[in-house]
Amino acid sequence: MHKPTFQELRELALSKREAGVLTMACEPLESVEPVSSNIVDSFVVSLGFKPPGKGWLQIDRAKAAALVEHILYKDLAYQYPLMEQNKAAFIAESFLALFSTHTCKFLTNGSINEKDMLTWDPISDSIFDHGLVAFDNENIGIIWVEDED
Question: How far apart (Å, rounded) are the C-alpha atoms in residues 53 and 22?
Fold first, then answer.
């Protein structure tokens, strides 16, 4: 089976999730211009976001995959399906596969409970925003969704 490149994943995600704003980026860790002592804060600032600082929550790979699948699959405001769930799961797993299973860390700005209720520290000016930053010893990437009410 063909392992998609980051660009192919990005194009697929953008073609399927037509509501809201989807930000997807992946780059070498060394290319991030430091604006703070926290590499994740520096990375999100480079993309035009406001870092939550201490608001980052580290999660494990299984929760990271579920989170990315959820934010791609459903609108954050009304939980309305935006793409096929299997496509969202494919994009989520393929994105996480871009990073080392041994050294990768996954950070988010909040959580989604079993009733799809979202709690978060915003990093954008949108009504709703949620996503994942992943990084290992070589690369850093983001899948972030912004939705309005």
Answer: 21
Amino acid (1-letter code) at residue 23? T
Q: Is 11's pLDDT higher than 70?
A: yes
Q: What is the CATH number of the domain that holds 95?
A: 3.40.1000
With a pLDDT cut of 90, the percent of the chain lying above it is: 70
- CB atoms near residue 74 (< 10 Å): 22
Dist CA 129 CA 148 (whole Å): 9
Nearest Cα to 26, choosing from 7, 45, 11? Answer: 7
**Measured in whole angstroms, how far is the alpha carbon of residue 56 from the centre of its chain?**
13
Residue type, position 19, single letter: A
pLDDT at 36: 72
77: left (phi over 0), alpha (psi -120 to 50) or beta: alpha
pLDDT at 65: 96
Among 144, 125, 124, 126, residue whose Cα is nearest residue 134 = 144
The answer as to whether 125 is a domain residue is yes
In this structure, is residue 108 part of a structural domain? yes
